[in-house]
Amino acid sequence: MASSRPRLRVLDFGTVSPLRSQTLWHALGYGETGSAATLSFARPQSPYVCLGLHRNAEELDSVAVDRYQLPVYRRMVGGGPVYLDPDQLFFQISLPVSQVPPRRSQALAELLAPAVRALVRLGVPAVLDEHGEISVDGRKVCGHGAGQIEDTVLVVGNLITGFDHERAAAVLRVSSPATRAEVLRLMRRYVAATPVDPNAWRQAMVEEYAAQLGADTLPGRLDTDEQAAVHRLDALFTSAEWLQGTPRPAKPVRTIKIRAGVWVHEWDHPDACTVLSIADGKVDNVLVEPRGDRTPTPALTSLVGAAVDDARTALSAAATAPLAAALAATQPGQVSA
Amino acid sequence: MTSENTLHNDELLVAGFPVRSDRYYDRDNHVWLLPMPDGRVRIGLDALNVETTGTLAGLGFLPVGSVLRRGGTYGSLEAAKYVGPLLTPISGIFAAGNEAVLAEPGLVTADPYGAGWLAELEPTDFDAELPLLLHTEAELRSWFSATVTDYRSRGLIAE
User: Which residue of B has its CA nearest to A246?
Assistant: First the structure.
């Protein structure tokens, strides 16, 4: 007698081109399989850069991107610009929107919980931390994003088995070498690799997601509609218009997220380039590079160690209001950016 | 008659959430619609939608002139790295996106019924579709309080 339990379709795309490492799983939103939950895996065969749906292409350092010969694609889910390479194993869980809690933070927590448990099974003491990141001892070990395509919710992540901090920092546009050095310093501190066995991880993921959904697993393949969608998405993702995205007003302060709760703010203004980084709810570092013979005021380095709210208050005067506004948008607990 | 829970003109407090009674609501998507003097309709998210969405990080809109059917997508909204569709409560031509929320998405959270409006449409089937939306104070109170109770029972929002 056939089981009445729901099915979890499992797809392993294997090692694929950078483009297909995006378009294959996006196509899951366009399938006829509709009601089936799907867990899929892919690994890009070479490095590339990927932009979140709502991010400006100008956030990338085009010189570095060209130097490393990195393709750039824009995904349909959230998050910032990221450097991706074969040392990152991608996973995607997709579900009909009707089966996902309407509160987004809760949906993410529920749909990332099996990924955390899979790591724990492999001996990695991972947690879904208070910022919504999968981390070990405060260091992010797995990126993620989510989106709704048609009537399907997709939560996607990448297990970082090796991480090229230098390239990840190099592809982000900044005004000053000091900013890039600060980004790199914090990336090294807060983004870490987890060198687990890929096959064991994949098996643990399948079992944990099946348990979470109360489902029987079923190896599968893309259906006809999904295959057609892959070809449409290939064309879309390689079009200049899609890559450019919707123009957005530039902000006076450039904010780079290292991981949720850890930010580098760069304020490039006529007197100086000011770099202010936030970690653990406090100002972690302040760097001020004066322009020419100008003297930047006020002295900001005294803010190091201050709580974010106190720093924001101290910066609220007109002369530094842009920095205060940037801090307000990246308060502790803020997970989006 | 003015309810004892009425905060000021047109604003009700239902189960702890503000609801503006001067506009129409899509019960499924928690989206409001306000007819404008020039014949357009303005749309935005209600307070419960804002609460469950979380801190906004970004939005995007379809091009002006896009033809929309009721329930269709006119843009996207990102919170917690989660991108979801913006759904129109009425059919129409996409006339304008709110440039202010593109620049500062936090406006939607801070003032969902005012400065945080999202878009304006030129409706194409207004008379037929408007009755599908909720509007009377009794309808709004019943619908909104039932949804809040449901969400609280499921742990989706705080007690």
Answer: B60
CATH topology of domain A7-161+196-244: BirA Bifunctional Protein; domain 2 (3.30.930)
Q: Own/partner pairs for B14-20, CB < 8 Å, 24+ apart?
A: B14/B140, B14/B141, B14/B144, B14/B145, B14/B148, B15/B144, B15/B145, B15/B148, B15/B149, B16/B148, B17/B46, B17/B47, B17/B48, B17/B51, B17/B144, B17/B148, B18/B47, B18/B113, B19/B46, B19/B47, B19/B140, B19/B141, B19/B144, B20/B113
Q: Which residues of B touch A107 (CB under 8 A)?
A: 82
Q: Which of A100, A104, A133 to probe the B interface (max B CBs under 10 A)?
A: A104
Answer yes or no: do B103 and A146 touch at CB < 8 A: no
> What percentage of chain B exceeds 70 in pLDDT?
94
**Per-domain boundaries in chain B:** 23-134
Nearest CB to A108 within list B55, B80, B99 = B80
Q: Which CATH architecture has domain B23-134?
A: Beta Barrel (2.40)
* Residue showing tokens 């906004």: B56
pLDDT given at position A292: 75
* Contact check, Cβ <8 Å, A335/B58: no
Residue B83 has its nearest CB partner, among A76, A106, A132, at A76
Q: With an 8 Å Cβ cutoff, are A336 and B53 in contact?
A: no
How far is A80 from chain B, CA to nearest CA, in Å? 8
**pLDDT tens digits, residue range A165-220?**
999 999 999 999 999 999 999 999 999 999 899 999 999 999 999 999 999 999 99
Name the residue among B53, B60, B99 with its Cβ closest to that of A53: B60
Which pLDDT belongs to residue B3? Answer: 42
pLDDT digits (tens, 9 = 90+) for A126-170: 999 988 899 999 999 999 999 999 899 999 999 999 999 999 999
Give the domain ranges of chain A.
7-161+196-244, 253-328
